[in-house]
Amino acid sequence: MTNTDWSDVRRRVARLAEAAGDDAVFGSADHGWELEPPLEPGELAEVEARLGVELPGEYRSFLLEVSRGGAGPAYGLFPIRRVDGRWRWIGDGADLTDLDSLGRPFPHTEAFNPADGLPEPPDEADFDSPEDFEAAEEAYWERHDAIVFDPRHYAGLLYLCHLGCAYREALVVTGPDRGRMWADDTADGDGFRPLRDDAGNPLTFAGWYRHWLTEAETKAGLAPV
């Protein structure tokens, strides 16, 4: 459990909606400063029963006290909704969350790149024909994708938002970094890394969300709360 106080969040987001409009803060045109209703305790119980794991305390209390999704970092928090009788997160990249493996530990505490150790892609100059090069290139990328997108890398990660261009950020649900936020930069070949504040400390969900909130207020020219 957590004693995180979220009582100011809806008021601050409403203030941003009035002052910032839809284009002063990156991604706000997508989420429109809208916060969906929070989950009812019974709904959260259904979600956690489905997942087989209790969500980290800060995010759990946010879902109950603030919202199930909407206004938030980048293009907004992926909302959790009941679809065809099953609870799931909705959004561009939300399907990267393997709901059946959230109870398996995400083992990492330091940045890692699943592509490390892979050879360089084939060079067309090394082949006698375009056909041979195309076959080698296809084989390389099949191997690359099998390694980089191995589901084991995503166990214990709950994807919460996207930043465009397939960059995404996720919450560690299970494992030694439980409750902390990570970036998935595999779209740029850079792997995974823990998110940190300006002082270099790991960001928990509350720190991550509040950092965005304060930064949004600064960009909108609002006095800090």
Automatic annotation (TrEMBL):
InterPro entries named among the record's database cross-references: Knr4/Smi1-like_dom, Knr4/Smi1-like_sf
Segments forming domain Knr4/Smi1-like: 38-211
Pfam families: SMI1_KNR4
Domain of life from the UniProt record: Bacteria
Name of the protein described by the UniProt record: SMI1/KNR4 family protein
